[in-house]
Amino acid sequence: MAASKKFGTFEGVFTPTILTILGAIMYLRLGWVVGNAGFGGALVIILLAKLVTVTTGLAIASMASNIKIGHGGSYAIISRSLGLEIGGAVGIPLYLSQALGGAMYIIGFTEAWMAVFPHHPPLNVAGIVLAFLLIISLISAKVAMKFQYLIMVLISLSLVSFFLGKGDGEGQMLLWGGFESAPFWTVFAIFFPAVTGIEAGAAMSGDLKDPKRSLSVGILSAIGISFVVYVALAFWMNFSVLSESLRGSYMVMVDVSKWRTVVFAAVLGATLSSALGSIVGGPRTLMALGQHKVLPFGKFLGSQSKNGEPRVAIFVTGIIIGLGIVFGDLNTIAPLLTMFFLITYGTINLVVFIEKRIGISSYRPTFKVPIIIPFIGFVWCTIAMFLINPLFAGSAIIIIIAVYLVLVRQGHQAPWGDVRSGIFTAIAEWAVRMGARVPSSPKSWKPNLMVPVEKPAAWREKIGFIRNIIFPRGSVRIFSVRILEKGVRHRVGQLVQQVLKRTKDSEESNKKSEKLENDLTDLIKPLRKEGLLAVSTVIEANHFLHGISVVTQSLKGMPLPPNVMFLSMSDDPEKDDRLEQLISMAMREELGIIVLNHYPERGFGREEDINMWLRSGSPNRNLSILTAIQLEKNWNGNLKLLKVVENEEEISKAKIGLEAIARRGRLPLDCEKIVLRGTFPDGLKNGPTADINIFGISDEISVREMHTITLKVETTCLFIRDSGQESALA
Prior knowledge:
Blueprint: H1 9-21, H2 24-28, H3 30-64, H4 74-82, H5 84-116, H6 122-139, H7 141-164, H8 184-191, H9 198-202, H10 211-240, H11 243-248, H12 252-256, H13 260-291, H14 298-301, H15 311-327, H16 330-358, H17 372-388, H18 390-410, H19 420-436, E1 448-452, H20 460-470, E2 475-483, H21 486-489, H22 499-529, E3 533-541, H23 544-556, E4 564-568, H24 576-588, E5 592-597, E6 609-613, H25 621-635, E7 638-645, H26 650-664, E8 672-677, E9 692-696, H27 703-713, E10 716-721
Parallel strand pairs: 1-2, 1-4, 2-3, 4-5, 6-7, 6-9, 7-8, 9-10
Antiparallel strand pairs: 5-10
Helix pairs in contact: 1-7, 1-10, 1-13, 3-8, 3-10, 3-16, 3-17, 4-5, 4-16, 5-6, 5-13, 5-15, 5-16, 5-18, 6-13, 6-15, 7-13, 8-16, 13-15, 16-17, 17-18, 20-22, 23-24
């Protein structure tokens, strides 16, 4: 690999860039552009096209001075910033545009050749040229670069010949043409590939001695010099040649030059050089896509010869170019290339804009550009796409999104980091700042649970139940407390001779903590696979309650705080007192409370029937209703509202109350309302069977009574207390 990185700025970037820009479009279509648009219209088209390449060139220079790009040029820049998925989604059309660019330039060569030798079969001419260029590129990129020096001399002489020639005009300027052959944006689309030569230089990024310097100096200098050349040519064409002649002949530069043979040779040489740039640069993008396994048969496509040449990728590119030659022509392929390049250049500008905007510390380019430059580049590329062809622009974006989704599902892992987490963090920070300005409302409530877990293994079945409470937009924060051993708690003041023992204790402590962290991570994996926000952590504390208190207070003061503490009852009576303290802690922190009493003999049953028991004037009905609704939806279950009354005369009134609650709470229409006569909790035995029963936690109900209630109904139970922030009526 090291042997292939042998090109300097002039040879590796400036030469392929300037020769691709001063290529087929300049010789074969610039006159046609001026003939349709006039000098003023042509100048606007050149400026608009250069606006894309100037902003993109500055963006590439900035990124090249910040990261090690490697093979792939623009694809490498995008993938190293926004990830392999987005890089691949843009890199695939980028590669196709490079390959089709080679086809376009060979078609341009064939047009010029046929103007002199009209009896030669065009496909034979194009085929011979393609074979010749493939042989050169297969031998070595170094040979290809040396070949381009001859072309540069020919182009320079041809420009001198053109400016010395005598046209058929009268020395009159046409500031704005009539666009007789095509409308403005079609003319722009046909001209735009003339300025896309920056990709020929960028594609050599992995073969440069000093990419940071070479890419910035080589690309920007080529853009500047080519701009002067194009403006001067457009002026002289409009001044010295009639518009009809410019529109009527694609070979007008040859026709009016002083030394026609030199210009003709330059036309052939320029188109050959541009095509060679595509055949050398395109395979390197394909090789990078293959090496990163973005494409099928990645190992095969990404292979290199002993001297670092991507020969397999060159053969594949040659096949695509051949198909483009057979089925396309210059005016058809040029707008297609315009769209692909606009997408790529727009994305590069977007990358730089995002990295500057989110302000991550890793973005420290030595070549700095104002943030307005990549923003203008991105916006203008997007606008230009839809001005040229809205249907094709929309289709291209949809295709890129589809490729992106496929790559996401494949789960690619890049060997480098990217800035996606920084982007999402910046969005989250912005959202938090905006949310802090707006008062909280029950309308925006959703279940955000915090769950203290002592033994992760005991929560395997319960985690699925938690999922059914929070799905699809809720969240859960699961944490555990590792109790510090006495020897670890009292490190300060111990004797020096105990240092080795403490170190051993610390290592064992770290192992226990690491195992606990891994167990919690495994516990929440099913939730994360469904796209739920689920996080876990382990803290160290002197005792369990102290650790939970610290976590609770910390989370309450952070963005996106939890609003419900989810607790589980134990069969061990000695832990009832701790549960009472946890409930008191949650009440003190103004959290909603859900206490699960898992009935081992029944578990969660069929996960279908839900009984929700209500008392008159219950202050806990809001969170109970919201939780019951979540379970009813995710279980696709049946919800029943139940109430126990002591007197016969209260039954009718109780039914009306339940109907009102169901109506105002917008409960399912098939929700049953059942009133039972009896006393609480003895009357619970008369209720219908269910997979889970939901009760409110009143001030009078203790943990011991929760056990009693569970034994009465003989099912798993939820005991719920409102925080005061919920509303089932919102």
